[in-house]
Amino acid sequence: MRVFVTGGTGLIGSAVVAELLGNGHTVLALARSEASAQAVEKAGAEPLRGGLADLDVLRAGVAQTDGVIHLAFGNDFSSAEALAKTVAEESTALTTLGEELIGSDRPIVTVSGTPDVPGRASTEADPLSTEGPVGGRARAVTAVLDLASRGVRTSGIRLPRTVHNEGAGGFAGILTNIARQSGVSGYPGDGTQRWPAVHALDAAVLFRLALEKAEAGTAWHAVADEGDQVRDIAAVIGRRLGLPVEQVDPEIYGPLGGIFSADQPSSSAHTRQVLGWEPKQPRLLEDLEKIQP
Fold it and tell me: Is the residue at 57 inside a domain?
């Protein structure tokens, strides 16, 4: 299959591109810059120059391929306004990609976060929340999944709060960066809240499986660790960086403060049973031991 991939040079995207190429697919990857284009070519894929805001480029990518994996996201969490702009840009791009696939029976694999369900681990059957700072993203993904009734083999991968590789990435990576800047490895609340996690290489396998065989309109959880306590995550970061581990004000995390403070465990039992996905890479706390001081 020839696959159009957005976000193909990021932590997750580069792993997805490698997974696709290693399993007999070819890849056309959106490249926002010359450096990204060179990275795509080095990986063995073909670059298509443009960004999420270049809607005609997105349409061209769909026209040249047999399926789509959408991963690109601006990741600007500096303010509520910046995050809203990022979500709006992605929503428009997703709508464009989905509309181009109507009636084709081709697959599109989208991405979102795992749901937050009070009192228990979320499952694939739980709906995404359309409220909060990233609620617009959930609405856009849900709209794409609904295109299953219009001849598109839609599926959605729900990623946990931390997708990691070699000690970097996800919300744990944000904790690490803030610890380096502040001199304290902090955690919000009492630190007993749980974050699910997955290694990027394991997540990449699930994206491929969904592309190849997921039924239309389905959602899947890329969760290896159901939930590590945030204070345990902060403890590893503090030890690796030689910093004190302390409770901090959630406001230090800006618009993500409320999300960082929430208990968010998640299950992938259904995904493992139906798609045969089985994580094999190091778990989060083990992988964080690779953080360089």
Answer: yes
